[in-house]
Fold each of these.
Amino acid sequence: MKVLKFGGSSVASAENIDKVVAIVKEKSEEGKLAVFVSALSGVTDKLIAAGKAASQGNEEYKDILNEIENRHLAEVRKLVPIANQSSVLSQVKKLLNDLENTCEGVFLIGELSAKTLDRIMSKGELLSSFIISEKMKAEGLNAVLKDSRELIKTDSNFGKAAVDFETTNLRSWQYFNQAADVTVLPGFVASNENGETTTMGRGGSDYSAAIVAGAINAEVLEIWTDVSGMMTADPRVVSQAYPIEKISYGEAFELSHFGAKVIYPPTIQPVLEKKIPVWVKNTFAPDDAGTLIHENGNGNDTIIKGISSINKIALLSLEGSGMVGVPGFSKRLFEALAREAVNVILITQSSSEHSICVAINEADIIKAKTAIDSEFAFEISVKKVDPLIIERELSIVALIGDKMKNHAGVSGKMFSALGRNGINIRAIAQGSSEKNISTVINEKDVKKGLNVLHEEFFEKPIKQLNLFITGAGNVGSKLLDQLKKQQRFLTEELRLNVRVVGLANSKKMIFNDEGICLENWKEQLSNGEPMSLTAFAKHARVKNMRNSVFVDNSASEDVAQVYKEYLKSSISVVTCNKIAAASEYQNYRSLKRAAMDHNVRFLFETNVGAGLPIIGTLNDMVRSGDRIRKIEAVLSGSLNFIFNNFKTGVSFEEIVRQAQTEGYTEPDPRIDLTGTDVKRKILILIRESGVAMEMDDITSDPFMPADCLEGSVDNFFEKLKEHKQVFDDLYTAASARGEKLKFVATYDNGKASVGLRSVAPDHPLYKLDGKDNIVLFTTDRYPDQPLIVKGAGAGADVTASGIFADIIKTVL
Ligand code: ADP
Ligand code: ASP
Ligand code: MG
């Protein structure tokens, strides 16, 4: 005989019940079935709400009852053929009348005992089992309704009654000895020795089915629900979770005990004793394999089977010098908690015995505190024990797997994955069974923690990378383009799933946790909400996603101001904006420090030479112990364009104008010509070489007469015209020597300067076309021939690809 249980969502509507009946029909061809059903989904909650409202003298309970009534009557009308409807409707009404009477009683006396609540709650399953059995009969099945209260006997602990297995087993065995083909039974409900209705705890229908499966030594227990098995994590929190193929009883128990709602934890015990296999199956996808819970995992099982979590946890810490070496302290602590029926979920004790830490449900805080304060009142008064420390808003996240005990390094991997993502661990416990490693973390970090661990232990090596991008202009849109094109490659080749979860320009911003569709981001962005840097940062912080990166494609000072906030929230920063790295040294250092302290990256390769690997190369040299002696570089595409095209027959003024028109310079070309931009770049290289330097420490040799710098841009061009001879002389002098003019940045022996130089043909800087950049590093390891990096140093496409590379570097 098989025992099947269909949960609340499986029987939520007439349409779903049709699916249940189809499954039962098919199964019944192979043998007899006991079919337990839950209440229609949501009904138990509604019943509790009605009872509570009634007990508070709130007439709204009647509305709730009406709603319950209408829902059930409607289901009957849809499910049962017209010919049988009136008798079924009248039975249903009878149950509903009884419910109404009970609630009215509660309303009148203004009190709701646990016993009465059980009577109220039981109606959910009594109604559903009756309706479903009638539907099965109408479908031609040889189906019988059996009230489980006649089979399952419990004590009188209403709300969570304990089963009297001896009586229950005997009654069930006798009954099912000669049962019909299909016996439909209400889950969740039972009765005490006086025949009063009891229930077995929320979610208890699973347990009812397991109790009977154990009693009759069923061939199998099938738990039919709305997911395709027990999954590696709660699918509502971890979208990448997937069904576990096989799992041991012990593992299934631990997973459910630590929050995997899919099975009510006590369910495992009755089937474990008789070694009855349990299948968790999906009513809505019956062909999916589902999960087999059985005696032992097979040989090639994974080490970790699942991850689960419990929210609303409080941590109590009892500390004090008086506890060291004194036997019986923990005994007194646990006894005090037990007396108040406080359930201890996790315990840790430091090896110094100086403190004991226990995790309990937040709801039990007051009971626990009162119990502990009174138990240790004397010790607290003589200061042998400190007053109890209570921390709340915590959660337990647990890794479950039988094989953990034989494998080193699981906990290390767990802690470092959490740590890398800025998740602080408050306490740790490894169950003595070693099936379980639990950590206590802040409740706000749970979603992130579960996803981080899931990624670490199950998705490997697919990593999720979550980008918050500001700046969607030239560089930004190229970056989005490249991201879109590379998505497949990244997933297939690098096992990296890169999603843009936040996107903003200076006016609008949009978010999508699952990743903004990059096909039509422009349109989406134009319909976004108004951009606010603070709101954007807050969103990224609150979402608290693992592997988050803030990408700044702007040149804005305001954006550069908020980097620190991101870094402090364990979000990496990748930017082509030079402002932060070239700001006061103190600020640059503190950003680097913040990145280090929070285990994230602050990367700005594109600050110098766009996509060229200049900073990366420099970092590699310095990290491996090389020392930078000298840097010579041409770092301005605009100045290069100007001096490459400045020749006899063309005036300097004309060429600067052309550069301006073609967009090679800033709108005010003086920003380029005075070398401010180049100064910033060499400053960043010097700092990355390990030298503390400020902008003002860099000298610049002006090559333009001073009055060119005064007044408007128009005035500037006028002055260039006026001083034509000055520039022509510079050119003629250089070309007379066979040399070329280059705007060069130099760092040598602790001193830095920028300025126009005349460069001889044998110098590496001589041959530099178009907008190319070049950097020469002379170091201890490259003392004679410098290490040279050369190539296109400007342009949206190459800048975007440099940013792209930095983004990838944050996780690889
Ligand atoms: P039923 O009504 O069938 O008893 P439940 O709602 O009690 O179903 O349990 C199924 C739900 O449990 C799933 O819809 C899922 O959201 C949740 N759940 C939490 N953790 C897990 C897990 N590890 N595996 C599968 N489901 C889980
Ligand atoms: N209907 C009960 C509840 O919601 C029992 C169950 O569904 O398992 O808790
Ligand atoms: Mg359930």
Amino acid sequence: MPSIQACLFDLDGVIVDTAQFHYIAWREMAQDLGFDLTREENERLKGISRMESLEIVLSIGGVTLSDEEKLRRATAKNARYLELCMQMTPDDALPGVRHFLDELKRNGIPSGLGSASKNAKVILERIDMLHYFDTIVDGNRITKGKPDPQVFLMGAADLNVSPVHCAVFEDAVAGIESAKAAGMLAVGVGEASVLTEADMVIAGFENFGLPQLENI
Ligand code: BG6
Ligand code: MG
């Protein structure tokens, strides 16, 4: 495996656990429309843009809405999501992730964020982690969502590192696909039984560092 010269991180589920807030906000919307959304169904929304997620949720409930109403619902869901996110503090960063980002900095390896979220900067500011990232590629910049490789290819280009020398950290199946399509090393954060296409799967960043990354 070529040596790693840059690391690209997904946000939700890798840096911080905001998936629970997305779930609460989508579930409340579903219930308001007369159906429930299970945790299992919520898995399908990980890594997927807001409007695409809305389409999936509506299809689960068999609900059809006008474009105007879809926009209104997505805006309301986002307002509720952000309200829930405001409960977070810097302590909400996932265990070990700050330590790993510090290790990368000490070793001169740049870090980038590659997220579908349009709220990425607000969330990173909230947990006081914006300064860790040399570039931010988020839902406001990309035109093609995961599993398309665009988000990570843009990150690599920003950092001026060839994709083959980049490692991606992702908790979503769509994100692992995106990393592999970009020709990068894909490190799954979560369960190996779910992230089957990843080059390696870690449960989290505790007990993980550069030596482990270089051994993949
Ligand atoms: C991803 C999440 O990071 O961002 C998805 O995994 C979410 O669940 C997507 O839909 C878009 O987020 P936002 O914050 O722009 O609604
Ligand atoms: Mg994620």
